[in-house]
Amino acid sequence: MIERRMAQSPEVVRRASSVVVRRLLDLPEMAGRRRIGAYLGIRGEVDPSALCEVERLEVALPVTTAGEPLRFVVPSGPLEPGPYGIRQPGRGHEVDPLDLEVIVVPLVAVDHRGNRVGHGAGFYDRTFAARRDRPAPPVLIGICHAFQVVGQLDARPWDVPLDVIVTDAGIHRPGMAHFPSPMGED
Length: 186
Known about the structure:
- The protein is of the alpha/beta class.
- It is built from 3 helices and 13 strands, in the order ααβββββββββαββββ.
């Protein structure tokens, strides 16, 4: 799946990212939200970085440290090289990840139940494992190319499922029977 994603041309990734960001902004889960977490797309990922330009949003980006949960920081300066070849904030206002209202989550593959496969480091699962214990947990929205949606993944007990999946072909809320086809046919 990673190879297929990386094989996408920059133009295909740009178009898919634009469609997905528009869909994200139109979601009821985003209505009235201000403080969100997002990421910067790399290696063919759908890239939500355009969210950083939306005036009504305060976008915190992940800061990774091996073996630790993610930290989220609203940058107040240039981004710096981080582990795994991903730019991240060097300075800024740190936000408790569980205080974010929405988290836009990267993935390698996702199924119709919201189970996702990431890059294997477990950052998102460790960070959001306690969200179910909160009165208003952050909404986890996975974004990806339509081809990254698969029939079924084997979930592990520690996996944290997504609440919404947004692709260039459509929107899916796990638990609902229908998911748009990759061709956009409903």
